[in-house]
Amino acid sequence: MPLMMSEEAFENDESDYQTLPRARVNQKQRGLGWFILGGWKIVCCSCCEWLAHICRRKKELKARTVWLGCPEKCEEKYPRNAIKNQKYNVFTFVPGVLYQQFKFFLNLYFLVVACSQFVPALKIGYLYTYWGPLSFVLAVTMVREAVDEVRRYRRDKEMNSMLYGKLTVRGKVQVKSSDIQVGDLIIVEKNQRIPADMIFLRTSEKSGSCFIRTDQLDGETDWKLKVAVACTQRLPALGDLFSISAYVYAQKPQLDIHSFDGNFTREDCEPAIHESLSIENTLWASTVVASGTVIGVVIYTGKETRSVLNTSHAKNKVKTPHPHLCFICMTSPC
Prior knowledge:
8 helices, alpha+beta, transmembrane, P-type_ATPase_N, ATPase-coupled intramembrane lipid transporter activity, membrane, transport, disordered C terminus, elongated
């Protein structure tokens, strides 16, 4: 009996070996069919996502030590303080607009239908009934996007060209907003917009504080009280900011506009002076000075400012062409 069981076992094993190659062939066929019927899309999308992730990989944001009035002492290279809201350039305008239109399935569907009319076996009706409405919608979209791009360019140019007072060892000089660097000492007058994220050092107000309007930052129209660093506010003259050895330690750029952690240190005296910094000592970019004149040291510029980090770029407005093409499916040869 044990012998018979073992023979059956061997017989079963032999049949398994005979069917195994066929199973492998079927598995390969299924794999090839899966790839042809749609698997290639998954593979391509995965590769594109990986490449896009590599290309979009952002520089790691870090905390920083900023010396007052000494941009050259910065340990790293920080972004330019330039505002750029344009979505395209001369080379990417047409491809970019077309991509924004046809990345949606419905728009892409009507494009494929229109292209199919060049095939005689699939042709239904006249070409202009397909390409006329589609071309019209694309032309209107491109004109609208071009006008919006020009407006954005002009606004950015105006903001980047605004002049501010910058304190140097030789006195006050005028500097464009786009040329402001981390570590610069910037003077902002009343009703003037703050060009970059700064630590509030001095004010013309005797109270050592000022009010700012934050409507462009958080959408609120109220005023917020800001307090200057006590050590620098007590200095007898404005030029004394260059006679001391002091720096600000600032946390890495954050999204939260309602909090800040940092320290102010003056090390040229005994003992060294240390002051904790909070949100009350900050002057965020895009806010407006509502009282007095303020002087601050720049700690974040450009795309690292709170206002830019919290900006969600508007998506392209898509005008779907299908209302103009809905008659395509009903068109029949005459």
